[in-house]
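Exercise 7.
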Amino acid sequence: MTNQNLSVHYVAFTHSGKQHHQNQDAILLPEGVQQQAGSWQKQLTLDSRLRFAIADGAGGLPSADKASRSLLQALVQLDIDKPDLAPRSRLLPLHHRFSNACKQNKALTNAGATLITAEIAPDGQIALWHAGDSRGYHLKADGLHRLTEDHTLAYTLKRGSRSVKVGKGNSGYSLGEALDNLFIYAPEASEPDYIGLQWLRLLPGEVLLLVSDGVTLHLSDADLAACLSDEDLATKVHQVFEAVMNAGAEDNLSVIAIALN
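Solution. The predicted structure, written as tokens, is:
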């Protein structure tokens, strides 16, 4: 049942950083997919389902900027075509769309991207799911809590949390597909073998934060928490941006901060 008194306040930005001319991140807001450097904020009545997402094109693979943008566009279209699909049930149809996309646009062949997305239902329940190394955080009264695990090779080896198989599969990919858990644009590739999925609700004053790895490259969880100390949501996000830029901003960086009122 829809709560007519519930509203969503979000603040977001995406930026190429200081070392890159091209932004390989793309973000999804209610206004649509954004990839040009910029910032956005709005308050909306939660009278229908809303989706927010960050996709990060895989550097070292072809057309990283196109891969991230195309991934979010495919996610939007899948929401329109099959709105009732559960999160994990979206993986296979997304993969089929990527196979078709690279047949129609050869520049996308063998491109890849990560994804973190939050779908907010009209009753305020949030489904958070991800594949790759972008992160989700829940800012609560008792501090900042990381909600996601990185799927990159380096992080997996550090944690020892999953078995790692090194070697090429039938598709011819090695590290990029099997270990970094990417969405790959190739007819013979498979969908990511693992997604993190959880459900949560935000209490008044709490924040859901989505960030790309260009943020966590420079900011530890403690550094990030320090940037979020201000009560104003826009100020929190601006302080994250300033901290990463001051640290060198060696990668593209994107943040989406969401609060429910």
